[in-house]
Amino acid sequence: MNIVLGIETSCDETGLAIYHREKGLMAHSLYSQIVIHADYGGVVPELASRDHIRKVLPLIVEVLEKAGLTLQDLDGIAYTAGPGLLGSLMVGASIAKSLGVALSIPTLGVHHMEAHLLAPLLEKASPSFPFVALLVSGGHTLLAEVTGLGCYQLLGESLDDAAGEAFDKTAKLLGLNYPGGPNIAKIATLGKPGQYKFPRPMTDRPGLDFSFSGLKTAVLNTVNSVANNEAGLEKQTKADIAYEFEQAVVDTLVIKSLRALKLTGLNQLIIAGGVAANIILRQKLEQRLAKINASVFYARPEFCTDNGAMVAHLGYLRLELGERETCSISVRSRWSIADLVPPSVN
Ligand code: KG4
Ligand code: ZN
Q1: Is residue 275 pLDDT above 70, yes or no?
Q2: Taking the model in full, what pTM does it have?
Q3: CA 281, 286, 289 angle in degrees (round to 5)?
């Protein structure tokens, strides 16, 4: 297994990449549908799948060109098989399987969150197993002890909203566009510290689970009371709220990550998923982990959010170890009529 094409179509990004056994990541291309969904304040599944159909083939051509390869050079194809939007996942899966059959090469459906989790291994400075992983995306927030490929011991997870979801919902409250994370982070740089006070949920009790819905409500209450006084939010007020909200989420993630390192006795932490692109989170973790002689690792920002590179990389790792899937497109050259059975109705 030398060269693997990765296809990511689980949500609102069409991501393609090529991973090479010795050269590592050879090329990647990404098309974001953000503009298409912006007016709706979130991803519209039907629009997402239709746009993946439009973009996936041109992007395959583009990524092959960037790598100086042709389809015939591929040894395997990996695609995101879930979790994600069904229609969008189907686009990647059917393209991957069709190409696999046409080229007589293996395909493999991979887990979107596992791909995120291992994306920091694409970088030069990356840890070897074991390590603790903090996975913070739009749909998931979890801490896991990672002892090998596919060996994930769940230490804690969000009981309600994911960290990215909290960013997105809070952004909406502040009248900012989707996706909320980058937009909150941007205006937070203009915020004055100490104007508002938000909770660090579930940090005052033991355990590694998270809960972000209370924090969102705290922001809502603040927005409502300030809006009553000011007839709408002023730009500086929004920035001040965004600043304190970001600090509250980051503090909560940092406290729990430190707790997870202590519990497992490990000194390496990986952060992955869209929220891992957050600069304040990276800075605070670096400062706090340095004090306990531990290290934090992350992928470059474009590989924290959805992308094809993480799928090509994980696909390569698993295909290389011999993992294969059966092709559900099934026909037979020899087939006795005596083997037939009556139709079964489910
Ligand atoms: O991993 P991802 O691209 O998609 C999922 O698998 O969910 O994560 C998207 C999430 C969104 O909620 C977005 O607001 C958040 O990641 N995000 C950020 C930042 N960039 C993206 N959150 C905080 N700070 C950022 N810089
Ligand atoms: Zn994702």
Answers
A1: yes
A2: 0.93
A3: 115
